[in-house]
Amino acid sequence: MAKVLPSSTELLWAYSQGFFPMPEPQTEEIEWYRPDPRAILPLDGFHVSRSLRKVLRKGVFSVSYDRDFAQVIAKCAERPETWINPEFLRAYVELHRLGHAHSVEVWSGNQLVGGVYGVHLGGAFFAESMFSKKDNASKVALHELTTHLRNNHFSLLEIQFLTPHLASLGAIEITDREYSLMLDKALQLPCHF
After folding, report:
1. For the domain 36-187, what is the CATH code?
2. If you write DSSP's letter for every residue of 66-86 in order, what string do you get?
3. What residue segments make up the domains of the chain, in order of their start?
4. Where does the chain show beta strands of DSSP type E?
5. pLDDT band, very low/low/confident/very high, at 24 (cuts 50, 70, 90)
6. Buried b vs exposed e over 86-120: b needs ≥16 C-beta within 10 Å?
7. Which of 14, 36, 151, 163 has the smallest count of CB within 10 Å of its CB?
8. CA dihedral (155, 159, 165, 167) positive or negative
9. Which pLDDT band holds residue 1 (cuts at 50, 70, 90)?
10. From CA 146, how far away is CA 144, in angstroms rounded?
11. First CA to last CA distance, the chain
């Protein structure tokens, strides 16, 4: 196993085949995952709670896209346990530079308080991580991401593993076979982020 991620081309190929990388916590060697079941967030299934609806209506936060990708991924890494090591920062910032990785930023004034980032291929978006420094900021980021993807005719938002938090927002699990079929169709779409 290597401790260095492959080239951008190889990394994108892995996503197109249903795999994503994560380093092993102790050794930081890169491992490739293809979970079964796989978690997705249906683009028409995002659950907006009453409290989130209130936050959205009041315009508590402002939102931008790709304004500060490097800062979003860096803030996603600011937690006690993270797979986002310097090698991941380097590789995904490079994917962003090439137009294949994107971020949604949530701002409170001039302060970045939430965000999500991921990889884009065709009509598929592979969400990698999100963070929140204020209540509801990551929910706003994910809500904006699903809306943005839906408006741009994407068909798949992959979120790797189901957590109770993501399930409360409408995420579901599907089998690897279902995921493969959805991924194949999504990759054929000429979507722009």
Report:
1. 3.40.630.70
2. SSSHHHHHHHHT-SSS-S--H
3. 36-187
4. 20-23, 30-33, 38-40, 62-65, 101-108, 111-121, 124-132, 156-160, 172-174
5. confident
6. ebbeebbbebbeeebbbbbbbbeeeebbbbbbbbb
7. 151
8. positive
9. low
10. 6
11. 33
Helices (H), 37-123: 50-58, 69-76, 86-97
pLDDT score at 175: 98
Q: How far apart are CA 108 and CA 98, in angstroms?
A: 28
**Cα radius of gyration rounded to whole Å, the chain:** 16
Token pair 């490097």 is found at 70
Tokens of 164: 């109770």
Note the pLDDT of residue 187.
Answer: 98
